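Why this split exists: single-chain examples teach little about how molecules sit against one another. For that reason, every record in the complexes split bundles all components of an assembly together and asks for one structure covering all of them. Below is a record exactly as it appears in the raw files.
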Amino acid sequence: MKFEIKERDAAGRICRFTTPHGTVTTPNLMPVINPNKLLITPQEMRNWFHTEILITNSYIINKHERLHKEALSKGVHKLIKFDGAIMTDSGTFQSYVYGDVAVDPLEIVAFQRDIGSDIGTILDVFGTPDQTKAAARQGIGETVKRAKASVSLKGEMALACPIQGSIYPELRQRCAQQVSNIDADFFPIGGVVPLMENQRYTDLVKVILASKKGLTPAKPVHLFGAGHPLIFPLAVALGCDFFDSSAYAKYAQDERMIFYWGTEKLEDMSALPCSCPVCSNHTAAELKELERKERIVELAKHNLYVSYEEINKIKHAISTGTLWELVERRATCNPYLLEAMNVLRIEDHKSFLEYYEPVSKPTALFYTGSQTIHRPGVYRLHTRLFKRFRPSSNQAVAFPEGKKPYSAGYEEQIKKIRKKNTQIAILIDSHLGPVPLELDEMYPYAQSVFPKISDIETEDAATALFDSFTKNMDVLSWKGNSTLTKLKTSEKEVDRDAQRISAVCDMQFGRGCGDVLLGGDIAVVKSKKTDKIRNVYCNGRHILSMRASDGLFTLKLDGAKILHKKIPFPLLRVVVHDDAVPFIKEGKSVFAKFVTDCDEELRPLDECLIVDIKDQLLAVGRCLLNKTEMLSFSFGMAVKTREKIT
Amino acid sequence: MKFEIKERDAAGRICRFTTPHGTVTTPNLMPVINPNKLLITPQEMRNWFHTEILITNSYIINKHERLHKEALSKGVHKLIKFDGAIMTDSGTFQSYVYGDVAVDPLEIVAFQRDIGSDIGTILDVFGTPDQTKAAARQGIGETVKRAKASVSLKGEMALACPIQGSIYPELRQRCAQQVSNIDADFFPIGGVVPLMENQRYTDLVKVILASKKGLTPAKPVHLFGAGHPLIFPLAVALGCDFFDSSAYAKYAQDERMIFYWGTEKLEDMSALPCSCPVCSNHTAAELKELERKERIVELAKHNLYVSYEEINKIKHAISTGTLWELVERRATCNPYLLEAMNVLRIEDHKSFLEYYEPVSKPTALFYTGSQTIHRPGVYRLHTRLFKRFRPSSNQAVAFPEGKKPYSAGYEEQIKKIRKKNTQIAILIDSHLGPVPLELDEMYPYAQSVFPKISDIETEDAATALFDSFTKNMDVLSWKGNSTLTKLKTSEKEVDRDAQRISAVCDMQFGRGCGDVLLGGDIAVVKSKKTDKIRNVYCNGRHILSMRASDGLFTLKLDGAKILHKKIPFPLLRVVVHDDAVPFIKEGKSVFAKFVTDCDEELRPLDECLIVDIKDQLLAVGRCLLNKTEMLSFSFGMAVKTREKIT
């Protein structure tokens, strides 16, 4: 089955998943269908919610005489009357709820294949949060054994192999690694229902992160049993692609309404805080007066409307680069979820998430509160600032934050200072930490919106970064003439444009890349309207273009040639297989399955050099994936080629 | 026109507003109807959005020959075919947009009356944010002059007198005071559109607060020209009752979609992040493919669906006591709105808002971030803690926060400490500041949910409160036996139940009230299941019942008699007019129009003594309003009587 990334934000992604019964766009939700008792038919789901995929239980079908027979004779799609994709579950959850279920692990896989399931699930061993590590280890041993044995039976069916390992991150990660090496197609994260039921979101986040770290990024990941929209945004941001909901029906039976912020009893409602078709066509009083059977159906519809609405909000957030904003906002709905956000501050997790984070976004970074400064993208910004940027001098003058760009409004003061000392470093002491003047138009410095007064946690973090960045520098605060008298004077004139170009190049391509690119006669074309750098020429050749939207450079072929010559392999390289070379030479983009190697410092949306296995430059382009993804995916684009060697 | 409070939270309220064309429940939204170009008919609005009230422009009707004639002959309701309430505007906004409009201020009032408007608006002078203070002062002078002159013309029509005064709080407050003294019925806060257009929410909040401070609380307040749901929750929390939306149509014309977090262009949408009927029945692609005319109508419908959805979310939040949670969550959508939240931290505003804040809520206090600790209800809690609570000793042992109630899990340690020193004060060092053990079941201490690790700003604030509360105390942290050795020993045995009862009484009724109520033989009935205090008897008489839901006391009649005897007038009193006495003696509740005086320390949901003008006790009850409200409102209940004197 084809699975390819189309859009991305945070460690989340919009993927296209191709099944024998249609294409499914992820993130997506599979409503649980109990063929014995339908509240809403699959056809109604298709009509009302555009349902592309659903999940039903092969264990229930298998043990029910009539269903078993019908499923085998006409197939599961005809049995439940749905022509979209169908995943089947195997009875694992029943074994957790009811104790041992008399099913043979291999028989149930064969049965799922025989009834034509698009995705069949092995009978894994459900690991509970309270089990010992030894028991959890034994459980994953058995799960992996069954997974291996199941592969030969899958036929045309995609095989889902759940990750188990209780709440032990190292076991989750190991289990994930082991099942990744099996020829399976779909990876549910199992055994998480008890965590969600008890709002143990901190443990849930640790489990998801550990599982994702062990898993291949090239296959769909399903948070098995997660049906409440409250956790959808965070789970997607960590890399989950699928959810399944029996919650819509269970809560409806209980006369409860799902909302993105939690669940509420219909009896407690007076105004319906929702505009879905159910809530638009009824008042709360009217819903309460319906016959119970009819009411349950209406509540189930409401529950699915808002669950799909949240999926669409997530997709919209990924498209607009605002998934972290959505995650942080949703976290304010539940203190336990907010608590779980603290897990993301652990260095190891931050660096894992940073690896998947795009280097630029279509929308400005919006501050939402004390979580914002801890985002992986901000972590990256500082990593690159500390590793790649070189201040122009050890003496600096610091300004408080101005309007965007960060230095706006300080032109006169900066001129005065530079008259006295041409080389002095100018720093803005911003909510995002220190901003060297040369970088003040670069994403996300200029493309971020903070309130004038943020919270103390953010201020403390920004101050700590500033202090750490300037610990070997002599920093004066701008206080009019008193600052000027303290300045040492410098002699050499500085080309401000060259300084900015070099600094942004260092941040984007690596320390020293600015010097390499500017090693010749430089000409700069600026926007007449904004006076901002647009195109950069070196010895008459167009090497760089600065994008107005994010203040980052597009690397032109002539610039790529210089970097390729001066910067050693494997830096900035994406290496393609010989089979792909003729296509790249025609200007086609690089597909993941042809990538043989890649600089591990490259991140989604970084500029890169496309080379053959002998490191001959073929083209320049922009990465859509990171190294692990490029080497794992069999489908989809890895690099969007911009210019080919002619 | 009747206007009465039915439910309340923060300084917001759900009111019933009675008009000649039906009852309107506030907060509510008035869609703007331009009789010259209808996108959606008023009848469709009624059907789709349950529209109870709308607003149209008498200036436009007046200057259009046919409309003018028709409006006079058959009335504005028939003209625009709407049988609900209609407010009319006067041309003030047109004068702001287009310059001087040739309308006579008194003629336009008479015209509105003659066409049968339910609420007609005077032609006030629009104050812009950039005008000088002198110009603003002159503007409000003219506005107030016109308001006074308009009153005699209003007839049966309710008269709306806008508050002006640009961005000068003292002018806004003075203007509000002046129009409050006029016989007007409805108070728009005018001149705020330029603030909203430029996202100057900090100024907007200051303007609303200043206006509310000057206004009577007994009349509806309308944030004139506010149609974007982004600011609805905060505006309602500050006391606004009405909004009007031309935004739904304007944005639709511009092919933009309103969401609670902002506005987005249809062309930028791929997944529709909404489940309203429009978004449920169309994909983004389908909307884009509609004929422009049809598309505009669909977008206008979407815009109104989500605007009314936000109104319903606010009503739901008021009913469940979670309006501040909603406000704080919505503030995370926009850094300028978040910035505006800082205004609420100013002492003067905090104490204004505290005056309207109920003392208990149906739902737990939920932490959402660094805003939470600054809520007026938390401010009240600390005011009462510092003013009313007396620690049992100057020596204290401090514990970190446990499970809810705050001390849970420390039973054994506390026993050990109390063996050594029976009188020592036990304090929990919580996210909400210091919690004396005696108060750990009282709202909101036990009824609050914080993450284990909150933000540094909250921690700093809690620590500062703890330090301030204990500055004259000798506080030891609990560190096992090392703490025990440092304790002085005490001799007197302490009755823990009496201590808790006394402490909660002091917090609820005032310092010393605990001693007064417990001045006899005390018997306590506890829940067998939870071992918590339920009923308190003094000399055999039932004086108090503790509510399980919020850990606060219901004052019984026998308790009220003791307090009435020992606590001097006017403390805890609500004084009723002689005309009402017979009704109160029958056990009827107290209506606001019969209240002649009230203790200004009483807050909504505080227990109170209902007395006649000679301070004879008539009954005991629970306040629904504060003093200013009781003395201002002509309609609705002021105190819910619980037990009458027999």
